[in-house]
Amino acid sequence: MMKGKDIKPHIGIFGRRNNGKSSFINALVGQEVAIVSDFAGTTTDPVKKSVEIFGVGPAILIDTAGIDDSGELGEKRIKKTREVIKSIDLAILLIAQNKFDDYEIELLNQFKSFDIPLIIIHHKSDVEKIESNTILKIKANTDAEVLEFSSIVSAEKEVIIEAIKRNIPQTAYQKPSLFKGILKPKEIVLLVTPIDSEAPDGRMILPQVMAWRDVLDHDAICMSVKETELVDFLKTGIKPNLVVTDSQVFDFVASILPEDIALTSFSILFARLKGELDTYIKGTRYIDKLKDGDHILIMESCTHQLSCDDIGRFKIPKWMQKYSGKKLNFEFISGLNTMPENLNNFQMVIQCGGCMATRKQIMNKINMVSDQEIPISNYGLVIAFLNGIFNRVVQPFENEQYN
Questions:
Q1: Domains and CATH numbers, the chain
Q2: Where are the beta strands (DSSP E) in 152-282?
Q3: What is the mean pLDDT of residues 352-380?
Q4: Does 120 have pLDDT greater than 90?
Q5: Distance, first Cα to last Cα, the chain
Q6: Three-state SS for 153?
Q7: Rg for the chain (alpha carbons), in Å?
Q8: Where do runs of H (alpha helix) occur along 5-48?
Q9: Which is deepest, 50, 73, 151, 391, by most CB within 10 Å?
Q10: What would you measure as the largest C-alpha separation in the chain, in angstroms?
Q11: What average pLDDT score do residues 158-175 get?
Q12: What DSSP string describes 334-350?
């Protein structure tokens, strides 16, 4: 299962075998967190390490296998290294001994295709300095910042950290706000939080916790009930300015909540935060155009134990087939698994809220789908559409006015 740390900014470390990727990470972190060896190919699968970078905050460093690996196993390692590119916010490419050729250029092209900012570091500078010809070759292919570094010169660490701060997008580490633009101080937000078989024992799920904190950060008033106590809450006479519910109980909540109280869901708030709400809204309306035999891809951002209450694997497919009256085919990917090779096989894609992923990871998937002109929606919006309350749940975002 993906952990909360995965929503931190991701920094991928790339380069050939024995270019010192692991020793670079150890030097940057200040402790031995990656295996260092003179034997080429020591790093196999990408390895994540959580670190604190002053000025950025918590981040994930990803140590990848060498891009020049060989053999059948080496090809598999390289494939996993390339998959990392889709999930990172910043790439650091290590070169050494002035080697900058096809391996590096191919990586640069992949970084460009996913709009990944890049720093190039000539490593092991204590052994061999970067040459002017190498710099010229680099500049012919990219305008990325180029630095020299030696893992045995501790003073150079600060130079790298400053470069990371200059190049990583601020959106990757700035504190996100679920309610920015739709909530002002002293307003009341009611969170409706069902406790079902998918809820963690004795804890709240991440979207609920983040929503609670964000309401408080807006100097607003936060209250919470289970859906079974919502009727009792409304009898108190307290009138919330906004109700946020789990999408699975949209139908029930909407049926008893007065029309003059704004309503949306945790999933839709995260869709707005992590993805593109306008794109999702447009894609949702395609549900009415689905035909018998159409294929729908459902994308989950985390992996978890399945149950009959699973929203993505069981409930949404059942509800969509009932609503449409069509025989629909569903396929699923979870976590950061590889996207299907041929997206054109799908007539629609549905993305979860993405609470366990970074915005970059979600946007890369959205862009891949949008490039193929395939309608894409979100769990919460789909459920609202199927329950006939679509316009109501997107209304809070139509006139965003508060900063």
A1: 4-172 (3.40.50.300), 188-269 (3.40.50.11420), 278-386 (3.40.50.11410)
A2: 188-192, 221-225, 242-245, 262-265
A3: 88
A4: yes
A5: 35
A6: coil
A7: 24
A8: 21-29
A9: 151
A10: 76
A11: 81
A12: -TTPPPPS-GGG-SEEE
| Among 248, 151, 143, 231, CA closest to 190 | 231
Contact between 197 and 309 under an 8 Å Cβ cutoff? The reply is yes
Q: Which of helix, strand or coil describes residue 131?
A: coil
- In angstroms, the CA 113 to CA 136 distance is 22
What pLDDT digit, counting tens, does each position of 51-81 carry?
A: 888 778 888 899 888 888 777 777 788 888 8
Note whether 218 and 175 are within 8 A (CB): no
- Taking Cα atoms as reference points, which of 263, 173, 238, 176 lies closest to residue 211? 176
The whole-number average pLDDT for the span 137-142 is 95
- Which residue pairs from 169-173 have beta carbons closer than 8 angstroms and sit at least 24 positions apart in sequence? 169/89, 169/90, 169/117, 171/359, 172/9, 172/89, 172/90, 172/358, 172/359, 172/360, 173/8, 173/9, 173/56, 173/57, 173/59
Percent of the chain past pLDDT 70, that is, above it, reads 86
Contacts of 124 (CB under 8 A, 6+ apart): 19, 20, 96, 97, 150, 151
Scan for tokens 């054109």, then name that residue: 344
From residue 398, alpha-carbon distances to 31, 183, 395 in Å are 49, 13, 5
Q: Give yes or no for residue 181 having a pLDDT over 80.
A: yes
Contact (CB, 8 A) for 250 and 386: no
Q: How many CB atoms lie within 10 A of CB 55?
A: 11
Report the range out of 21-30, 196-205, 283-292 with the highest average pLDDT: 283-292
Q: Are 65 and 81 in contact (CB under 8 A)?
A: yes
Output the six-digit token pair for 194: 């069902």
Per residue in 107-125, is it b (16+ CB within 10 Å) or e — as a string? bbebbeebebbbbbbbbbb
pTM over 0.90: no
Q: Are 190 and 224 in contact (CB under 8 A)?
A: yes
Amino acid at 294: D
CA nearest neighbour of 116 among 158, 153, 88, 145: 88
Q: How far apart are CA 80 and CA 402, in angstroms?
A: 43
pLDDT band at 112, cuts 50/70/90? very high
